[in-house]
Design brief:
Layout: E1 28-30, H1 38-42, E2 60-64, E3 67-76, E4 85-92
Family: Belongs to the FliN/MopA/SpaO family.
GO biological process, one term: bacterial-type flagellum-dependent swarming motility
Domain Flagellar motor switch protein FliN-like C-terminal: 22-92
Length: 99
């Protein structure tokens, strides 16, 4: 296999920033998990209540892909008229630096 003519690294780009740093990344916020039997899943209907494995005061988890990157608490955005939610970061995972 032919070797590339140029090796790309952070210093190869204008301003030292890799172009991938500008790509959008979806962050998934996990409030909790529920474990159901198939029978229970099939019986779900409007107004069904699923107990989660977390309490209201427990932090939520932030994931990029399958990697936990941070924990935080849910808050309503100040001044929001429609109750829009946000996450206040409490702790950033050491592994998030390697993303």
């Amino acid at each position: 296999m032919d070797e590339p003519d140029t090796v790309l690294n952070d210093r190869s780009f204008e301003g030292g920033r890799h172009p991938f740093t500008r790509l959008p990344v979806e962050v998934r916020i996990v409030v909790g998990r529920a474990r159901l039997k198939v029978e229970e899943l099939l019986s779900l209907e409007k107004s069904s209540v699923l107990p989660l494995d977390k309490n209201l005061a427990d932090p939520v988890e932030l994931y990029v892909g399958d990697r936990l990157i941070a924990r935080g608490v849910l808050e309503e955005i100040e001044g929001s008229t429609d109750g829009q939610l946000a996450v206040r970061i409490l702790d950033v995972s050491d592994e998030s630096a390697s993303l």
